[in-house]
Amino acid sequence: MSNVNVKGKVTLLSAGPGDLDLLTLRASKALAAADILLVDDLANADIVTLAPNARVIRVGKRGGCKSTPQAFIQRLMQRYAKKGLHVVRVKGGDALLFGRAGEEISALREAGISVDIVNGVSSGFAAAAGLGISLTHRDHCQGVTFVTAHMQDHSQPDWAALAATGTTLAIYMGMNRIASLTASLLETLSANTPAAVVQNAGSQQERRLVTTLDRLAQEATEAGLGSPAVILIGGAIGEAVEFAKRVHATEGFAHAA
Amino acid sequence: MSNVNVKGKVTLLSAGPGDLDLLTLRASKALAAADILLVDDLANADIVTLAPNARVIRVGKRGGCKSTPQAFIQRLMQRYAKKGLHVVRVKGGDALLFGRAGEEISALREAGISVDIVNGVSSGFAAAAGLGISLTHRDHCQGVTFVTAHMQDHSQPDWAALAATGTTLAIYMGMNRIASLTASLLETLSANTPAAVVQNAGSQQERRLVTTLDRLAQEATEAGLGSPAVILIGGAIGEAVEFAKRVHATEGFAHAA
């Protein structure tokens, strides 16, 4: 009820996984109308070209690295919105999957500031598109679980419970603990469960690795794959052409040996 | 390896949850270039206006209702692609979440036909935007599970296992069994777990109900909510302003009684 006279507003805008043409038409319009653009470091840096009238402020946070404090980002959004400006807060992927949108929405509401949300494509979907697979091929599973390996209290997710669902697992922010999380999953899932890493999904820099769960951590390390990346695990990943090629290549190698 | 001379192609295109401005820029371009448009009945019917050069063929399938057989859709796509045409197969939400994209991709590959995939916004994300919440508010959960209640063999998902993950549940195609699935979830989750139904999420016809798990089925039925809708369950849903209002309204009512 406070600050009902605030005329500015904040748009939480999903920048999608990377390529600018994966933005929605609605996002493109909001960018064009932005006065202030707060850009996350997981978003494509070229997104500023779509907001020609905006003052651009670079903020961002990436697990373990130096980042702009959340409280400072909150204050910036509120300050400019209270000046009557249209603040567009750009977030990579979809703003409503990880990335602290929940806390930002709460704080803005408490300050009496109107919040719009513009959806987008999360990187797990782009990763599946790169692999040419459905996340939920019905021969394999009944759903997909998006989970962060980077928890607020630095604990681990309950990998056994997640594996027990039988859903495809799409693990975000897991690259710096890929060895431990795959080891945990191997306590429940079989060694030959199809698995993949897609780095920079949905961008020109996309790199993919498709293998089995028991080999995932080692092969990802050997290939030099790192953040930002999505780890995908489950039978549905076995539908990727790259998985079939890998199996054939392995078989050929075995025959030759 | 067969049919390497096929010059046509198929684009599996995600139409998003409803409003046309939730299409991606890439989807918009693909529609403009389409020769043949196969439109799902979960997609916004007005999408044809974005494909002025395409011959439009309406296909679709909705659980329990009459629908175009999958095999016929497959044959249509292959026939037109083999004629050298650009076939755009439109699917509601994101093509890679439910909706049989996996089977369509496999069949097209076997026929030697090139497949492009264009991502989009799935209705679960639009539902969260409508509610003004993050799907994964880190005070409440470490992820979100998208699951279909409509399984290939007509069995039920393992609700206990899904609830045990502690993730937000986004249940698709669950409205015709909302009483039984909420009853199953109540064996694991507490009665006052926040829960919501969002019908026609991300469209002008969006309708929302926010309540607790124990009241969800009855209130959804009383409100006349039906398919297509997303059912959202978990602590993160309690961040919705509508949940707070509901609690206050209930308290007020109790005081007055």
TrEMBL record, chains A, B:
<comment type="pathway">
    <text>Porphyrin-containing compound metabolism; siroheme biosynthesis; precorrin-2 from uroporphyrinogen III: step 1/1.</text>
</comment>
<dbReference type="InterPro" id="IPR006366">
    <property type="entry name" value="CobA/CysG_C"/>
</dbReference>
<feature type="domain" description="Tetrapyrrole methylase">
    <location>
        <begin position="9"/>
        <end position="216"/>
    </location>
</feature>
<comment type="similarity">
    <text>Belongs to the precorrin methyltransferase family.</text>
</comment>
<dbReference type="InterPro" id="IPR050161">
    <property type="entry name" value="Siro_Cobalamin_biosynth"/>
</dbReference>
<dbReference type="GO" id="GO:0019354">
    <property type="term" value="P:siroheme biosynthetic process"/>
</dbReference>
<dbReference type="GO" id="GO:0004851">
    <property type="term" value="F:uroporphyrin-III C-methyltransferase activity"/>
</dbReference>
<dbReference type="InterPro" id="IPR000878">
    <property type="entry name" value="4pyrrol_Mease"/>
</dbReference>
<keyword id="KW-0627">Porphyrin biosynthesis</keyword>
<dbReference type="InterPro" id="IPR035996">
    <property type="entry name" value="4pyrrol_Methylase_sf"/>
</dbReference>
<dbReference type="GO" id="GO:0032259">
    <property type="term" value="P:methylation"/>
</dbReference>
<dbReference type="Pfam" id="PF00590">
    <property type="entry name" value="TP_methylase"/>
</dbReference>
<dbReference type="InterPro" id="IPR014777">
    <property type="entry name" value="4pyrrole_Mease_sub1"/>
</dbReference>
<keyword id="KW-0808">Transferase</keyword>
<protein>
    <recommendedName>
        <fullName>uroporphyrinogen-III C-methyltransferase</fullName>
        <ecNumber>2.1.1.107</ecNumber>
    </recommendedName>
</protein>
<keyword id="KW-0489">Methyltransferase</keyword>
<keyword id="KW-0949">S-adenosyl-L-methionine</keyword>
<dbReference type="InterPro" id="IPR014776">
    <property type="entry name" value="4pyrrole_Mease_sub2"/>
</dbReference>
<dbReference type="InterPro" id="IPR003043">
    <property type="entry name" value="Uropor_MeTrfase_CS"/>
</dbReference>
